[in-house]
Amino acid sequence: MQNMPDSLKRIIEKSPNLEHRIRGLPNLGENLIDGQFSKEVSKIYDAFGLYGNELYSLENERIRNISSRSLGGGSPMRTSAFPLCKEALINIISSDELSDYPMAAGDEESRKIILEYLKQEGLKCNNGLSEDNIIFTVSSTHAFNIISSIIARPHDVILMTGPNYGLFTFVPERISGATVEILPLSEEDNWYVNPQKLSKRIDEINADLKAKYGESLGYTPKVVAFLNENPHNPLGKVMNENNKEILEGIGNVCLSKGVFVIDDLIYRDLTYDRDNLAKPMASYEKFFDNTITITGLSKSYGLASIRSGMVVANEIIIRAIRNKIFQTMDSSPVLQGRALAGAFNASERRKKEYGNYFNPIIEEYKYRLELLKALINGLDFIDDSSLREKIENDIRNYAFDYNINQILDGIPNVDFVNGTLPDSGFFEMLDFTGLKNKVAENGRVISDEKELLKYLYEQEKIKLILGQSISWPNEEQLIGRVTTALPREDLVEHFSAMNKCLRKLR
């Protein structure tokens, strides 16, 4: 058990009869190759284990009947499905086509519809873009799983930013025995990827791998891919026409070093500036063959439960993905493809429905961000008088069980991480470092992120995602990822509860 993550050790301690069978449970918290996660991934794994399991042991009589106040979840704002997606799903369910086995590549009709949309969005392929450059998956996460399995060998590296979407960090090690390494983002770069730092980091990792393994494996492990999240998850930074030099820099670095760009566009349609959406790496013809684009419907189109994803790439990559789907699932699900075709098509009707659907969603997310600013920094932080009045009314309506004056003053010793307010999506990064070493009435010392999370839960059943869970680059800070994908009343109530319990610290 010595190499097992702490969260799994705790499970085995409760179920000792499982210990001798652990090797019969493949990939239970283990690297496929070495039987253990890397240091970086183990740290993340334990943080998620705390969030998911250990907190419940802290429940006391006072909070037992309180509903969990989850501020960390990644579920998008609850809304009706995009009309054309809904229509496409109803039509296929009402037909007789569901009795047929689909192809592993996904049904051709849907891919042809999406092809015209991709051309409209400017994607360019050296040999001419075709439906053979498109394949459907069960979510973008499923897509990333398959991609990791076909591009990486044991001990190869997939490079990700820090912070990142924490759940992706487990995938390469479990799927192919590859390793995840981190490219730290920084305030000095305004939290964008710095192409020069990316180039240097790739060279450093490759040099280390060569020194460690040489040709002992029959090949020299190397960095095989960089996960480019655009918009970034969780920071919400968008690379579009206004800062395309960064995107071009990333593309040139990866192309010159033989590193695939996995271009994750899942949050693209939740960009606040509707005229400047994220620019796909594959819209540059010279980068197309070196880019694997992934996207899906979960975050934007009100269809998280459908689990619908898509990959756009060179035909050789698509063929490898198709073979993997054929080996594991036999065929690609038709419902996913039809829903994607409803979302991504070049029709005039889609353009009309797109504005009608997304404009109110984006305006609501922008308002909730302003509401969160008031809850964290205080109502006086809001300059616009009409907006301030609206926010104050919401706070008074939904925080009626709390000290209103304290709520309107904000939360002491808590602030947004400078420069991280999003341009897309529904995540915000909060800095709790001002609470470090403060002491609770029960003697708990807020020495690190885990102690902060334990305190918030045992006081008010509050949960958030720790910076440690998403590879936050500065371990000295106490960071929490929170979401505004909550109803206004929950947002106010949950942060009012946080305000109340953090004011007790001394």
Polypeptide structure, described:
This protein is of the alpha/beta class and 506 residues long. The chain has 2 domains: 27-74 and 360-502, Aspartate Aminotransferase, domain 1, CATH 3.90.1150.10; 83-346, Aspartate Aminotransferase, domain 2. Helices cover 40% and strands 11% of the residues. The chain is built from 15 helices and 13 strands. It has helices at 6-14, 39-52, 83-94, 108-120, 139-151, 171-175, 195-213, 244-256, 315-329, 334-343, 348-377, 385-398, 404-409, 449-460, 488-502, and strands at residues 69-70, 134-137, 157-162, 179-184, 223-229, 260-264, 291-296, 309-312, 415-416, 427-431, 462-463, 465-466, 479-483. The strands form 3 sheets. It has a 7-stranded mixed beta sheet, with helices on both faces. Helix 4 (108-120) packs parallel to helix 10 and helix 5 (139-151) crosses helix 9. The longest helix has 30 residues, at 348-377. The protein is globular and about 65 Å long. It starts with 5 loop residues before the first helix and ends with a helix. 45% of the residues are buried. Mean pLDDT is 88; it is low at 21-29.
